[in-house]
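Appendix C reproduces, verbatim, an entry submitted by the partner laboratory led by Prof. M.T., so that reviewers can inspect both the input and the predicted structure.
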Amino acid sequence: MNAPLVRFWGVRGSFPAALDSCRTLGGNTACVEVEWQGHHLILDAGTGIRKLGERLVAEPPAHPLHLLVTHPHWDHIQGFPFFAPAYSPEFQLTVHSLRRKNKLKHLLSDQQQATFFSVPVERMQSELSFQEWDEGEPFTIGPFQVQTWRLNHPGICSGYRIQMGEHVLAYVSDVAPSTDYLLADALPGRPTRQQALKRLFENQLRLAENAHTVIYDTFFTTQQYEQRSHWGHSTLEQALDVCKRGKVKNLFMFHHNAEIEDAQQFERLQQCQAPKGLKVFAAQEGRTVACD
């Protein structure tokens, strides 16, 4: 059986970066494709989804497309209006998200109001639908078994755990440590601050437990985090801790900060002290990796 493939179409965080210092890792914002047994999952719709859309139109897949959105911050949805398959009646596209009061369908529609964009969501000609899920609720997409869990990030943000046969991919794109600030909107049950932080950290472990591959937010250096710990992002050291606890095999640094030159990112990678059994990589736009 062929191994699942992971393709990185956008690896930047916060904003696209057309800088010489960012060309090696790539300048587009978050978008990752997972392909297995002819089925395609798309994780987030940052600017990287535009190139993915061009590829899918040129080579149409045999099965419907599924887009899993972590949260509606701009760097995770700003590419959606430029996703070519959404405009073609030949494509079926389902957009998945955590259940929220402000439905993702309405938020994406707001982004494409005439004031901001020339084509409204209602004029997209694909067979477009939206599906919301409760936290921790397992759901099936083709051969994929999926769950989504809340993360400590401003607003309502979640990560995804994707089971592919014997392999597990955890996508933890935007997350802050559960130590300094509670940044997430109120959790169900109205727990205390400490209870909420504990639950959100446990969610990271649920996502990463025994995963073959974890894609994790390493936006800040340790020094940057000390200055901006309220922003909602993590460091490589925090990623290593989660992966050690989860007994993870492969970690991909993700949501790269354009304020850190790519050469510095590779220095961070070379200098990190990964626990035994964990391999660490920097996610790179255009790269395809096999989960084998």
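The mean pLDDT is 96. Additional entries are available on request from the coordinating office.
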